[in-house]
Amino acid sequence: MSRLLIFGLGYTASRIAYAMRGRGWQVEATGSAGNIGFDERDGVSAALAQASHVLSSAPPADGSDPVLDRYGDALKGRMLAYLSSTGVYGDADGAWVDEASPTGSGRRSARAECDARWLEAGARVFRLPGIYGPGRSAFDRIEAGKAHRIDLPGQVFSRVHVDDIVAGVVAAFEQAVPPGAYNLSDDLPASQNAVIEEACRRLDVEPPPLVTLEEADLSPMARGFYAENRRVANGKAKRVLGWKPRHPTYREGLAAIMARE
């Protein structure tokens, strides 16, 4: 039986765990939602001793990677996977980026360093754009009164439905694909305004007014999000993993969320 140890059982990783269990895998995980405390060295060591595969969704901590710092030596001999971010590419002024594009120039410098360390360790590094899905979508922001339409002509983002991330990681595990970086993103980079407008249309409500970035009064983290502009290419994942997004644009993704909820 294949055994998977997950470091960090958050929004995306918990769905990967569910999918792998459904395929007959034994899955253990660290964190508050897992069965092992991250600092329980004996428990983690015992799980690693039996694990054939390891997935980390742990974000950088104090500018470094907590999993590699603490357990890196014990990871050797396992198939490794890491959930990273397309933020490692930095600002591309709206141009396309792929896995060969330079990294490390953007606001996610710590993430870029962790990304590089996992690649050096021989991992399959999944670079993810804005993640959305049930309970985490434009619908939720609209209903909470936190949706914005910001007047930034030409500003586009890529995004990915959480179910498509799960499908990509499952494909990598089951096919034992080569180590390296893989962008998992949808086929249609678009402005955040377009997504909010589509969600409002489906909810049959008026979209929020168009405002400037200053008028939106965003948090520093959200302002940083709007400071970068890029389109993320997913061709390598399609070729190597045999993967294609079930939700190729935000329209199909929002329709699926509404149907489920």
UniProtKB/TrEMBL annotation:
Keywords: NAD. InterPro entries: NAD(P)-bd_dom_sf. It comes from the Bacteria. This is SDR family NAD(P)-dependent oxidoreductase. It comes from Qipengyuania qiaonensis.
